[in-house]
Fold this sequence. Notes:
By secondary structure, the protein is mainly alpha-helical. It contains 16 helices and five strands. The strands form two sheets. The protein has a three-stranded parallel beta sheet, with helices on one face. The model has no long low-confidence stretch (mean pLDDT 88).
Amino acid sequence: MLGGVQPNPIDTKVYEGIDLCRKESVDMMLAVGGGSVIDTAKAIAAGVPYDGDFWDFYIGKAVVAEALKVAVVLTIPAAGSEGSGNTVITKVDGLQKLSLRAPSVLRPVFAVMNPELTYTLPPFQTACGIADMMAHIMERYFTNTKDVEIGDRLCEGTLLAIIKEATTVMKDPENYGARANLMWCGTIAHNGTCGVGCEEDWASHFLEHEISAIYNVTHGAGLSVIFPAWMTWMTEHNVDKIAQYAIRVWGVADSADKKAVALEGISRLKTFFTSIGLPVTFKELGIENPDIDRLADSLHRNKGELVGNYVKLTKKGCDIERGLKTNMKRMQDRALVGLSQEELDNLEKSLCVIAENLRKEEDMLAAERIIQDIKERTKEEEKEEKD
Length: 387
């Protein structure tokens, strides 16, 4: 038996497990716990028959060709790892948190799912699990794949079930029916049923992986901060599906103003998260001064220049957009370059149009030129003030 698996499971425990399995000639893994335990078991299962370093699978150096069988006794509904072939491990040296997908060999052969085992879960752990399973669905729901009404309705229906049962279990932790439905929702959310045939996103998960790797926060709590923020950014870049989500999941009234509809839906999501005891800001997560540059650098180092699919995120784009906002604020606060308020408003609208198209190289260059021009004029204004 191997104990001591921690939340945000780490590679050192995997190495320990591989050594133990080889020593004892283990031929099957039984993971008793939640996502961290199951993910660790999968990593061990892949590593035992492999001659090299199991981390090779996570960095794409090798493909999992064979593995020990994995079975599960689920005690924490959240990650859906009992029904998927996915596993996420953090490498302690460098705090690199990466995922591996190998459904043909790592999907558990069976999972025992007894809702009574979840009665004594602390409320915060229950809430984090709820956020994680909701995020798994939304990573699939927010897609650019067209004509997926059945997939959309599967996602929306499962989200509505989670929201309903979450409210119940927070008041009545030993409600068998609600616990059973949440347990099943966690599996459905991540076993491939939701989002069949759709291009998936996963940017929010990858962003959260960096946060939990560096700051060691609970995964679900990190997601309750990241996902509403990601959705808010998307209202400026790809609003349609966000608005549909707001209408169908949160009951927001339809309107010609899609952005307003989307933002109201996001507000209701945040209110829900808060109601079950989850954070929705970095400060509430316990991170007073997040190192955004470090997080962004690590994200793109681990996942490449382009992250996600709903709208591909780039670090360069983030830097430019942050620069646009910072310099516009300076211009407005200090009334630089002698422009009227109306002229400043018009300029800001023009810059926002550019920011919305940051993925296009020509727009990036145009935005950079504007920022540089603003900086130069700012310097000139500051020089004149000193003189």
